[in-house]
Amino acid sequence: MEIPITGFVVHSNDGDSQHTHKLYITSWNGRVVHSHPFSGYTSIDNGHKHHYIGLTEAAPSGVPHVHHYYAETSFDDGHTHQIRGTTGPSIPIAGGGHYHYFEGVTTMNGRQPHVHMYREAIQEMRSWSKG
Q: pLDDT by residue (tens digit) across 27-54?
């Protein structure tokens, strides 16, 4: 069985010696997909906080859905943390679009091992969808 997909490829100029590309899927089996950019700050724990930024995995537009996400925090106090999880369900916005809540706890890292909490809302990235 073949599933039709559409998308585009972007050259990744990430500074390493390998030639790489990122694939962005815009439709899967006839359904438009989209992603959300996200960013925020962790809670202050152990005398510091971390910044994070990322892009959720793609999900279909126009139907109830969630997104998986992953990011590594900024390097602060000699270490980083990972955040990952699944957003809450899509919540419609009056006039079109939607948003998702996401929250969690980072991985345990640092000279004195600790975690940070994070919680944000992300809004639809309209330029990625065709509808």
A: 777 777 888 999 999 999 999 999 999 9
Is 7 a domain residue?
no
72-82, pLDDT tens digit by residue? 999 999 999 99
96: region left, alpha or beta (phi > 0 left; psi from -120 to 50 alpha):
left
How many whole angstroms separate alpha carbon 38 and alpha carbon 56? 7
Overall number of domains in the chain: 1
Q: How far apart are CA 99 and CA 87, in angstroms?
A: 10
Q: Looking at this protein, which amino acid is placed at residue 55? A: L
Query: CB of 125 within 8 A of CB of 24?
Result: no
pTM surpassing 0.90?
no
Domain residue limits at 72:
32-128
In the block, tokens 């091992």 appear at: 113
> Is 26 among the domain residues?
no
59-60 vs 31-34, strand pairing mode: antiparallel
- 107 close to 19: Cβ distance less than 8 angstroms: no
Distance in angstroms (rounded) separating the CA atoms of residues 5 and 30: 7
Write out the two tokens for 63. 């139907």
